[in-house]
Q: What sequence folds into this?
């Protein structure tokens, strides 16, 4: 009798790495909380403050309307600065990247998987914030959807590039966490978490909008209100995304 050939479905190395990293990512309860749970939870807390749901003449809108785009940024900041760098530097510190370089699976596959998973988590958290804002607090969805999407994608790129740069420069996972924390709080401030960017003093506001998350805050606010984001803000975001990406690629070490 002749043997019947049964086709074997082979999984590409990159797909296998992505699946493995996804399983590990799901097991990190702390990471999942800070990336997926913290920004929506903070939005619920802020939205529960009665004065935040009232019209503010100084802002020209309710405070909660300002905080929805801000917490979209918080999700990306947490993902880029706190979730990804310790993992990547931990792999390098333990020699995993060096060992992978000797196999058919290249270390770049692991980096791509990490950036993809963390980017997807940040996007999901942002979508949850938008949904909670709309359903729970009657915050309008972005009226300029295309401009909002463009500004959002540039912000995702800049946040992940900043995380990749920290991963490139920090020799250990502990130091990556420390450096990420040092950058984390100024990033939250520039995003408008403690005070909306538009309510800051003029000089401070002019400085903040030159930073990636300050420019992102203004671009998302403008798109949410129905205006095309200012090209100056989009240009600042694009410039930061390019510079940070090039720097991360230039200084990244596999071992």
A:
């Amino acid at each position: 009798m002749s043997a019947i050939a049964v086709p074997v479905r082979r999984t590409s190395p990159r797909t296998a790495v992505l699946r493995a990293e996804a399983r590990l990512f799901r097991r990190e309860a702390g990471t999942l909380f800070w990336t997926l749970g913290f920004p929506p939870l903070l939005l619920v807390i802020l939205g529960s403050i009665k004065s935040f749901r009232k019209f503010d003449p100084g802002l020209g809108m309710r405070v909660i309307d300002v905080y929805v785009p801000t917490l979209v940024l918080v999700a990306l900041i947490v993902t880029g600065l706190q979730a990804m760098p310790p993992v990547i530097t931990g792999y390098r510190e333990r020699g995993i990247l060096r060992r992978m370089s000797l196999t058919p699976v290249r270390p770049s596959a692991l980096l791509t998987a990490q950036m993809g998973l963390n980017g997807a988590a940040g996007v999901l958290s942002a979508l949850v914030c938008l949904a909670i804002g709309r359903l729970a607090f009657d915050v309008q969805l972005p009226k300029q959807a295309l401009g909002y999407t463009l500004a959002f994608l540039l912000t995702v790129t800049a946040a992940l590039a900043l995380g990749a740069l920290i991963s490139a420069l920090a020799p250990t996972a502990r130091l990556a966490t420390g450096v990420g924390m040092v950058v984390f709080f100024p990033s939250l401030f520039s995003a408008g978490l403690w005070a909306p960017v538009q309510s800051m003093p003029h000089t401070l506001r002019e400085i903040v909008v030159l930073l990636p998350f300050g420019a992102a805050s203004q671009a998302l606010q403008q798109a949410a209100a129905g205006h095309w984001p200012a090209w100056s803000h989009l240009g600042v975001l694009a410039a930061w995304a390019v510079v940070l990406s090039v720097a991360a690629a230039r200084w990244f070490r596999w071992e």
Residues 15-251 form one domain.
